[in-house]
Amino acid sequence: MLRKRHRTGWGAAALTVILSACGTGSSAPKGAAPAPKPPAANALWRSPGPTANMPGDILIADAGNNRIIMINPQKQIIWQYPKPGQASLLHDDDDVFFGPHFDEIITNQEGYNVISILNFKTGKIVWNYGHGNIPGDLPGYLNTPDDAFLYHTPAGDVITVADIKNQRILFINRQTQAIIRQYGQTGVRLNNPPFTFAAPNGDFPAPNHGMLVTQIGANDAVLLNQGGHVVWTVHFPSTFYYPSDANLTPHGNVIVAFYTYPGAIVKMSPSGRVLWQYDVASGPGQLDHPSLAVELPNGMILATDDYHDRIVEINPKTNQIIWQYGHTGVAGTAPGYLNDPDGLDLLPPGVIPGGTNPIGHHLWSYPGNGY
């Protein structure tokens, strides 16, 4: 989502804590209580299982720490990349999603212009696309990639990505790294999907091999069918701006975060009716640049509250935060802390990451879509 590294509404003391916590040797911020010792991350995946509020484990793109972690509902780190004490090869891992079989993880390093795939079992990067810290629009180059997804198709694995500043959606053959399909005209920012886009920052899976594309510049979400044609467009309320990563709920509605301060989350029907919104102006419920919100199978809303360094779960019936991982406005690397978390995915119960799992258990799995 064209990330902005500066933080709004924070004092100099908080910024000092954040900057010191970004180092590889940092732990909890100075003066914080010692965090509980987590299970041996990466030694063996284990989880006590879901709780009433949280229906599975959560994979988190901890972008400011250049790492990926997985936590259980009890807030313990049960897997992470890199392993403790090792250097990370990731830079600004903006989003993170499991692959079709939950044996791999795909992440887009938005500010670094690279997409990477990691093997969950080995914890190693096995595939890259793009040139590190070098934006471009030629084959093999990206410019601010967002929301990379990995699909399994009869012709082989395909990666999709919203290439924001190149104003396009790419379909990339994993084996050959060739661009096999493209929506939008490279470098042309114009709201006329699917021919041109106005800063597309989301390309989420949709039913019938479709795709839901978010446009920052048009403040909308566009559903494309398998052929790339527009099915419908949801225009977001004009009171909000900077939509980020719109995706479909289990009931086929659209949920979207607004990457602003204060931040907001809105759920709308495909016809454009507002069904629910969350826009707390101040206090502990306020959001600061949330970039992704998803509706869980239990009806709760899980969201990244990026600049508040936390992941939150919201009860839409009460508009109260009922679960949180991270310390609000305090960045860190120790267990219980995050630094600008920008993406997440849910590991549903019964699925073993790194194992042989059938396709079809993701939040956005639909019959035959290879995800």
Automatic annotation (TrEMBL):
InterPro entries named among the record's database cross-references: PQQ_rpt_dom, WD40/YVTN_repeat-like_dom_sf
The keyword Transcription regulation is annotated on this UniProt entry: no
Keyword Signal: yes
Domain spans labelled Pyrrolo-quinoline quinone repeat: 203-326
Disordered as annotated region, ranges: 28-47
UniProt keywords, alphabetically: Signal
Transmembrane segments: none
Superkingdom, taxonomy of origin: Bacteria
Position of the signal peptide: 1-27
Protein's recorded name: Pyrrolo-quinoline quinone repeat domain-containing protein
Organism classification: Bacteria, Bacillati, Bacillota, Clostridia, Eubacteriales
